[in-house]
């Protein structure tokens, strides 16, 4: 009995760590933003001069009239002087633990990779990114430390390992390395807890439940080939319908959803038919399948990729060219058909965090600045909420400036609903950065 009890306590501690939160201070704290123009996450234009009161970690009052700070609170008053107050930015597809260089990752020095991930998380927050969805990597401890207030970083919706088949997009085994079922050991991706290489319904169930046990808010599968993988192409289909259904069933039993890495029409239709709710990428879709996503009420979480070269091989460069050539039509068709769109960067092997801001600014190729801002605030937050009871952040709303919402706020020079280039230089233009009611930057 003693062993059983100890085991239960250890499991409970791990689960609690995955969902730990900073405790509010015993005395209420308040921040009053005066004379700001608000982008609330959904509107096309800024409000007239407005005042916004934050109490503890939530937005308490929004009013054009003067607001009195509640008695008994420790208050900070910020004079906005007509600047823009807006929700913190969110990225629906990050790999915080993979922002090291490829050489650093292949060395497998976990201590070094953790240090890089913690620094990356800090830089993301200080560039205005207050929430991210991490789509492959061991970020559970990082998330726990951020939520506990031990280190700086955004809110994280973690997926854990990317579930992939043998020879699939997330199989980083070396050539002729035997699969486990043939007597081989763990691949380097599995050793680093970046991927789970599985085959068949039973192994997919185990991999899905493994991630859920660790605290995943959603599950990630690769159902097509990809760019960064060494051998497969974005046109390849991966996992059978029954294997995809296994992941969907296991995730649904825990109240959450499956999101799939998929580029091409066949893999995406197969995934949706199996019950998948979110498609990552999709740059090789045709217009008919984009309409199919709309009819099935499925999210398209996509990116504006660019063609990179080193450290990619010639084959990887060719594959990325295919993807980049398809994205213009996909964005156009998705907007025309009112598909549920989320946006992320999917950057890895690139330690420079400002690249997120730069890529966001480039979205005006397809949409207005206000539409792009809505997508990376309100819309992304709607996608995050699909995790249901696995959602680690439910005390307030995310992605909006509304009463009762989390106080994840940016005070910005200029009007980004008219000029999105403002977000590309956060060091200069983001004057105040607040997350969960705490100010992490103030250059006023």
TrEMBL record:
Q: What is this protein called?
A: Hydrolase
Q: What domain of life is recorded for the organism?
A: Bacteria
Q: Which Pfam families match?
A: Amidohydro_1
Return the Gene3D superfamilies for the record. Metal-dependent hydrolases (3.20.20.140), Urease, subunit C, domain 1 (2.30.40.10)
- Ranges for domain Amidohydrolase-related come to 84-439
**Keywords from the UniProt entry:** Hydrolase, Signal
Q: Which GO terms describe its molecular function?
A: hydrolase activity, acting on carbon-nitrogen (but not peptide) bonds
Lineage summary: Bacteria, Pseudomonadati, Pseudomonadota, Betaproteobacteria, Burkholderiales
Q: InterPro entries recorded for this chain?
A: Amidohydro-rel, Metal-dep_hydrolase_composite, Metal_Hydrolase, Metallo-dep_Hydrolase, OTAase-like
- Provide the leader sequence positions: 1-22
């Amino acid at each position: 009995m003693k062993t059983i009890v100890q085991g239960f306590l250890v499991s409970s501690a791990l689960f609690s760590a995955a969902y730990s939160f900073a405790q509010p201070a015993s005395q209420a704290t308040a921040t009053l933003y005066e004379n700001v123009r608000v982008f609330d996450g959904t509107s096309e234009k800024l409000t007239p001069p407005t005042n916004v009161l934050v109490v503890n970690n939530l937005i308490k009052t929004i009013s054009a009239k003067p607001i009195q700070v509640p008695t008994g609170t420790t208050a900070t008053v910020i004079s906005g002087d007509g600047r823009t107050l807006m929700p913190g930015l969110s990225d629906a597809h990050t790999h915080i633990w993979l922002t090291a260089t490829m050489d650093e990752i292949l060395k497998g020095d976990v201590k070094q990779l953790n240090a890089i991930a913690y620094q990356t998380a800090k830089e993301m927050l200080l560039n205005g990114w207050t929430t991210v969805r991490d789509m492959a990597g061991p970020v559970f401890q990082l998330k726990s430390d951020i939520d506990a207030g031990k280190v700086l970083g955004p809110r994280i919706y973690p997926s854990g390992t990317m579930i992939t088949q043998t020879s699939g997009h997330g199989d980083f085994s070396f050539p002729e390395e035997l699969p486990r079922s043939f007597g081989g050991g763990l691949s380097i991706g599995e050793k680093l807890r970046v991927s789970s290489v599985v085959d068949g319904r039973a192994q997919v169930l185990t991999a899905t439940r493994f991630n859920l046990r660790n605290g995943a808010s959603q599950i990630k599968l690769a159902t097509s080939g990809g760019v960064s993988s060494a051998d497969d192409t974005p046109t390849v289909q991966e996992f059978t319908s029954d294997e995809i259904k296994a992941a969907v069933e296991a995730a649904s039993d825990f109240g959450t959803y499956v999101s799939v890495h998929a580029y091409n029409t066949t893999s995406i239709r197969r995934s949706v038919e199996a019950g998948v709710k979110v498609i990552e990428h999709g740059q090789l879709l045709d217009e008919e399948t984009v309409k199919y996503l709309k009819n099935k009420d499925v999210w398209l979480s996509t990116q504006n990729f660019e063609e990179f070269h080193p450290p990619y091989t010639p084959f990887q460069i060719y594959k990325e060219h295919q993807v980049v050539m398809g994205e213009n039509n996909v964005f156009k068709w998705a907007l025309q058909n009112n598909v549920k769109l989320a946006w992320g960067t999917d950057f890895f092997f690139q330690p420079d965090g400002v690249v997120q801001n730069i890529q966001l600014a480039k979205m005006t190729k397809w949409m207005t600045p206000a539409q792009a801002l809505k997508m990376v605030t309100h819309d992304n937050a709607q996608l995050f909420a699909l995790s249901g009871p696995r959602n680690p952040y439910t005390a307030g709303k995310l992605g909006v400036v509304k009463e009762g919402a989390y106080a994840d706020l940016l005070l910005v020079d200029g009007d980004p609903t008219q000029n999105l280039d403002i977000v590309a230089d956060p060091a200069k233009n983001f004057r105040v950065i607040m997350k969960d009611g705490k100010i992490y930057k103030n250059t006023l």
